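--- STAGE predict ---
source: upstream dedup step, 1 unique chain passed
mode: sequence only
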Amino acid sequence: MSIAVEPNFHVLAVDDSRMDRKLIERLLKNSSYDVTAVDSVSKALEFLGLLEDGTTATSSDRPVVAVNLIITDYSMPGMTGYDLLKKIKESALLKDIPVVIMSSENVPSRINRCLEEGADEFFLKPVKLSDVKRLRPHILKGKSIDSNPYSRKKGNPVLSYCPCGLGLWFSF
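--- STAGE serialize ---
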């Protein structure tokens, strides 16, 4: 038996600016996303269980919460959003998580470089509600929720996306 449900997708938002972080967090929450907001790439990597040297933390150190999308500022002290993008795409466990880069600077070479490295979108700040509405297809595109290694623990039901467009269901 299958039960259709509307998922609460989880977005990891990374921005060193408190004001920008609060804005994106509010826009995402108003659009029915669950949000974890952090102020640095190192905190994002820690949350994802990815160590700065590119290795993955042990399974006991991994987050229990699924991350369905990462949205990150490009310019931050220390590691940039571009550095985070590269680490995500180099990780065997995390590479399928969509990454969106945002920046207040409209630099075509920067935008192209991010998109070539695997970013799914590049938003110019300030992020608007119309930008947030463009996130859902990236979360849904050909990826089932259970393909994310952080989306469930063994023995729990699997919440899957139906490719035929009928919604989501639990598999036991």
